[in-house]
Design brief:
Layout: E1 2-6, E2 20-24, E3 29-34, E4 40-43, E5 47-50, E6 56-61, E7 68-75
Antiparallel strand pairs: 1-7, 2-5, 2-7, 3-4, 3-6
Length: 80
Amino acid sequence: MAIGSYKPGQAAKPQRQYGSVFAYVIEGEVISQLEGQPPVSYKAGQSWHEPPLVAHLVSRNASTQHGAKLPARLLMADGG
């Protein structure tokens, strides 16, 4: 579990996770786009799931004036 923080206008680089990601916006608004899907805007109180190995093309703060925060949980399969 990690708390992600976005400064106003901040964006993350595209990435791909090997496990499932569950994210929940606790402050502000975040725009997220997974490979093969349109961008979606999530406001405080909303959540989403990212399946393993699906490219996360866009993850950015929707606001250029206010910050955004979201806890995210990454679930990895046990290698044993």
